[in-house]
Structures are given as C-alpha cells and as structure tokens.
Amino acid sequence: MTMPKPTTHTVEVSEDVYDVLARTAARRETDIDGVLRYLIEAPQVSAAPAGRDDD
C-alpha cells in the first residue's frame, strides 16, 4: 500500500492578519507556521458563556 502524498494549502490573509500572526510568532519565539500549528491544535472555545445551573 502506498502512502498518499502530503498536500499543501495556500491561504491568503490581509496585512492586518499577517501582522498579528507575525507579532504572535515573535512573542512565542517561533515562526508563523508554528503559530498556525498552535491555533489548529488549540482546543475549541465556546463563543457563548457556559450557563450555570443554580437551581
């Protein structure tokens, strides 16, 4: 069985997004690829606050 060839994807972002990624990379002492890997692997955070069951 042959292994599938890895694929690459290109995503174009605005200069503002690139600036945030570059500053985050500098703060985390990594490159932009490292920041993107971190964001992809980070656990999902709910946009809505979790409800409390006070009853």
From TrEMBL:
Highest taxon in the source lineage: Bacteria
Protein name: Uncharacterized protein
Taxonomic source organism: Virgisporangium aliadipatigenens
